[in-house]
Structure formats: C-alpha cells, structure tokens
Design brief:
mainly alpha, 21 helices, about 75% helix, globular, cell membrane, transmembrane
Length: about 425
C-alpha cells in the first residue's frame, strides 16, 4: 500500500473511530503512529515526530492566551459578571427574538479583538454563555451552536494568528492583513445576528428562550451593574489597540482585573480560587491536547503526500481565475474536515501562491477568503475543533457532541454565505488596505 493510500485510509478509519466514541485526540495520535509506522517501517520515527509535534505545536507564546483568557472567563463567571451581562442583554434585547444569542455574537466579536484565536473564545463563552442561555430557556443545541459558531470571529477580526501566518507565507504586510479582516469581521457578525433573527422567526422552537412574560427594557439601576463589565472590556481592548500590551499580556491583565472584581464583590475565597485554577488547568490541557494531536496528524498526512497530491492535481489543471478560486476554496473546505487551520495554510498556500500570482489575483483578498474557508472547518465534523472545545468546556451531560455540531451547522452555512459575498465583492476585503 502506497503512502498516499495509507493517508486516504486513515481518513476513513478516523471517521469510524470517532463515530464509535473514541476521543478525537486519541484517534488522531493512534492513526498517526500507525500510519507513520506503515509508511516508514519504524515505530520510533512516529514517536520522534510525536515528540516534535508536542513541542512545536504549542511552543509559541501566543498560546498563552488560552489559559489566561480561560482563567479570565472563569473569574468573570465567579464574580457574577457573566450573569450580569446576560441579564442585561436579555432585558435589553427582550423584544428581539433570540436576543441573548445575538448578545453572545457581539460579545464573541469583542472578545475576538483581544485573543486572535478561536479556541480561546470557544472555551471561555462555553463556560459563560451556555449556562446563562440554558437558564433563560434557550434550546441547548442553539446555545452551544451560537458559541461555537461565533467563536470563529477570533481568527478573522484582528489581531488574528491565522492572519499573521498567512502574511508570512504569502509575503504580505501583517498590518494590511489585519486591516483586511475588519470589514469582513463586521459583515460576518451582522450575518450571524441576521441569521439568528431569521431562525427565530421561521423556526422559533430551534431557538427557544422567548416564552417569558417578564417586562423587558433596561432600568437606571442597571448602570451600576454595567460599570465593571465596561471597565474590564475597555481595559483589555483599550490596552491592545492602544499599544500598551500584546494579546497574551491582555489575557493576564484581564484575568487580574476579573480577580480584583471577584474579590471586591466578595465572591471568591482561597478555596474557590484554587478550584478556578484547577478548572483552568483542566480546560487548557484538553484544548492543547487537541492542538498537539491535530498537528501530529497533519504531519502524518503531509508525510503521506495525500494533501500535496490533491493540491498538485488542481494546480496542473488549466483554469481561469474563477475556476482556480472555486477549486481552491473547495479544497480548503474539504481539508477543513480533516486537519487543523494552521496546517491547511501551511500545506496549501505555498503550493497555490505561484498560481495565484500568475493569474494576477490580489493576495490580500485571497487571504481573507482563505481564512474564512479554513474557519468553516472548525464547525464541521469529524474534525471541527471548535465543536470539541465547546463540548469539553460545557459541564452538562445532556449536551452531546452531536448537539454541538447540529447547533453549529446553521452558523457554518452563514459563514459560507459571507464567503460568497466577499468573493463577489472583493472591495470588502481591500477597501481599508488600498
């Protein structure tokens, strides 16, 4: 059996293992070890690559945002800010169907502007938003779906780790790539909100949380409850965009601010703080374990030559701009089913770049549509990393992985619509750049 055939068979076996109930990270590592052993005839090579993947995939300091913002999110929950936020959002948007879902989207958009990584948003809001939405009577599938779906804003709204990676691979300005994500990020946020309103009107049972007779509207007394929330957001966002600290440092500052608020409100004692730290460790380890396994599996696939064979077949075809973009986006979407976001960029961009340059395609615009297409993969089975992060972060046995994927499906469709809009109107990605 050739290496390419081994890579292809691993995809089928992975689906079967995940469907049978094996944890996705365990399945990825197991298949990677077996695949490398079959291709190279030496099990030690697989172990060596696993060690490299464990070091390389999470060695960058940017992954420090995961534990820091998870800690911040948990402290926000302990302090009661999450409850305050969604109480206010529920009353303020009581007359809007799916109002708390819309509030979650806007909160994720704001949070995206501080982290630059989707999985951090998914982990944090799974802990804050989902329990509050369930408390308000929202459909569990919608609650986890809106969190998983809106978490992808973290890779589109600057600062974005994927934007930085693409800029490096395509030899583009990081600043230009950041600017190119602003309007598409706003557009995707609005599309999510419009989609929630449409779902609430056409299929209200799929949303839930709308059959309450309590009066809506904000009161003057709510202003005091908003101060800590606004101050914390201003501290994190203002510090980043004011150039005072990086996104990783913002996580530490935000966690410190949330800790101060929790102490001021007398909502946290020493034992409670220790429990928060332990929970932060559990969530962080589960997220980073997924990243390590995804990186290892991507290396096995790259070693098999399967992704390169797929890309090479496309590049050798005689296509115009429209045909090239269509096939390129289709390839990225397909790869999104099986490997992680960064690996897709590392595999496809270097091979596709010469073809795109020869066709005269704007590389900034191509970067934006590539990022959106890559991020759709975070919501689609069997590899949808954002869905697994949400599932591992939600402490509710009633919610299954199938529920997360089903809830995220409408948001993946909304992302596809947004992708088509930006393909049709390239100025949405380039207006602030040129």
């Amino acid at each position: 059996m050739s290496p390419v055939e081994i890579g292809a068979w691993s995809l089928l076996v992975m689906v079967l293992l995940v469907v049978s109930g094996l944890h996705i990270a365990v399945a990825l590592i197991l298949l990677s070890l077996v695949g490398i052993w079959l291709m190279r005839g030496n099990f030690d090579i697989g172990l060596s690559l696993l060690g490299q993947a464990m070091n390389d995939s999470i060695a960058g300091q940017e992954f420090g945002v995961v534990p820091l913002f998870v800690l911040m999110g948990l402290l926000v929950g302990v302090a009661g800010l999450g409850k305050d936020m969604f109480d206010l959002a529920d009353r303020g948007l009581r007359r809007v169907r799916g109002g708390v879902g819309i509030a979650t989207v806007f909160a994720n958009a704001g949070f995206a502007a501080t982290t630059g990584i989707s999985i951090a948003s998914a982990a944090v809001f799974a802990r804050i938003s989902v329990p509050e939405m369930l408390r308000f009577g929202y459909n569990p599938r919608f609650a986890v779906g809106v969190v998983a779906g809106s978490s992808v804003l973290g890779m589109l709204i600057p600062p974005s780790l994927l934007m930085i990676l693409y800029a490096f691979l395509a030899e583009q300005s990081v600043g230009a790539m950041f600017l190119s994500g602003v309007l598409p990020g706003i557009l995707l946020t609005l599309v999510f909100c419009a989609g929630i309103v449409t779902m609430a009107r056409l299929r209200p049972a799929s949303i839930g949380g709308m059959d309450r007779d309590a009066p809506g509207g904000l009161r003057r007394s709510d202003a005091g409850r908003m101060v800590p929330i606004v101050a914390l957001v201003a501290l994190v966002l203002g510090g980043i965009y004011g150039g005072l600290f990086t996104a990783t440092e913002a996580g530490a500052v935000g966690a410190t601010g949330a800790l101060a608020i929790a102490l001021q409100r007398r909502q946290l004692d020493l034992a409670g703080f220790w429990r928060v730290l332990i929970e932060t460790g559990h969530i962080t380890v589960s997220v980073l374990f997924l990243i390590i396994s995804a990186n290892f599996y991507s290396r096995m696939l790259a070693l098999s030559g399967l992704p390169q064979s797929i890309v090479q077949a496309i590049t050798e075809a005689d296509l115009g701009i429209a045909g090239f973009v269509a096939l390129f986006i289709l390839l990225v979407l397909v790869l999104g089913f099986i490997i992680d976001s960064a690996s897709i960029l590392l595999i496809t961009v270097p091979l596709m770049l010469p073809v795109a340059q020869a066709l005269g395609i704007d590389l900034v615009w191509l970067g934006v549509i590539t990022i959106i297409a890559v991020e759709i993969g975070l919501l689609t089975p069997p590899f949808g990393l954002a869905a697994y992060v949400v599932k591992s972060s939600v402490d509710d046995s009633r919610i299954t992985l199938v529920d997360v994927f089903a809830g995220a499906a409408p948001f993946a469709l909304m992302m596809l619509v947004t992708l088509l809009i930006i393909i049709a109107f390239p100025w949405l990605a380039t207006a602030l750049v040129y």
